[in-house]
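re: that complex we talked abt at group meeting.

here r the seqs, copy pasted straight from the sheet so there may be weird spacing, ignore it
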Amino acid sequence: MQEKLQSIIEKSSLTESQKRLWLNFIQITPDPESLKDILDAFESDPKNLELLTDNLEKKAKALSDPDDKKWKAVVEEEKKILG
Amino acid sequence: MNSERFNLGRFEKGPEQKEENIEKIVIERLNEEIKELGMEEEMEEGAAEKRKAKISPLKKAALVISVSLAMFMATESMALAGKYSDARGRSKDMFEQLDREIVKDKERKIEQAEDFATLKRPYKMEDLMQQMEPEAKEKQTIEKKEAGKEMSKEEIEAKKQSLYDAAIESFKTVLSKERDFSRIKNKGLRKSIESHEKSFRAELQTIVGQPEKVEVSFDIEKNQVIFSGTYTHPVSGTEQPFKHIFEAK
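got the structure back, here u go
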C-alpha cells in the first residue's frame, strides 16, 4: 500500500518539494494502515491529490505556530469546504 | 521563510509551563481529530465504523493527515524538556527540507521566467543548483574549520565537559518526572504513546546509569552532544539501538 501511494506521488505532476513532503509524511505516519484512506482518496478522484497536497502543506506549516491559531484556521477552512 | 520558525521554535522556549501547555494543546487537538474521525472507543460498537463510512474519501484523508501529524507531534512532545530525541531530528529535517524546497521552487520559477523572457536557457536550474551546492558546502566546512581553530585544545575539552554535564543534568530532570497520558481518551493510542515513553525513559536511564554502553560524540559548533548505543527494551528485554542529540541553549 505504501509503495502504491509512493508510486502515485512520484508519477504525479506535483513539484519536487511537494513530492518530498508527501514522502516525509509517509515516513512519519505512526499508523501505516491509515495511509489506505489517503490512497482511497487519490484513487477516487485524481483532483484529490492536488487538494490533499495543499491541505498537507498548510497543516505542516501550521505545526510551527505555538499558539495553535494557524492549525485552527486550517481545520476551520477544511470544515467549511468538506463539511 | 525562516526555517528556525519551523524548527520547533515552540519547543525551544524552555520553561516547563510552556512544555505542559504544548502537550495540552497537542492532546486536545488529537482528541478532537480522533472524535471527528469517529475513532472514539466510547462510541457504541459499530457506530464508529458506520460514521467513518459516511465520511467522504477526501474528508477521511484530510482527517488522517491531521491525526497523523498530531500523533507525530504528541510523540515528539515527550522529548520537549531536553531538546533532544530522534523525533525532533526527523521533524527538523522535514520542515527544514520544506523550507529549502520552497525557496528552490521560487528560484526555479524565477529562472524559468527569465529564460522565457530572454529566450535563452544556458543551464537547467537543477544543473546550476547541483553546481552551487557542493561549493556552498565546501565554503561552510572551511568556515567551520577556521572557527574551530580559534579554540585551544583545553577550551574544547572544557566545552565538551560542560555540554556533557548539561546533557546529563537535563536527562536526570526528565527522568525525575512521571508523565501522565491519561488525558488521551483513545486507549490504543494512549497505550502506544505510553509504550514509546517507557522505551524513551529506558534509553535515558542507560545514558545516565550505564555510560559504558554509550558512545558520546560532540558537535561543538552546534553545541550538541550525540549519544548512541543500545538499551534494554523494557518489554521485550532485547537490546535496541538508540541515538539522542542534546543541544545546549
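couple things i noticed - The CA atoms of residues 228 and 243 of chain B lie 4 Å apart. The interface with chain A takes residues 5-6, 8-10, 13, 22, 25, 29, 56-69, 71-73, 75, 90-91, 93-95, 97-98, 101-102, 104-105, 192 of chain B (CB under 8 Å).
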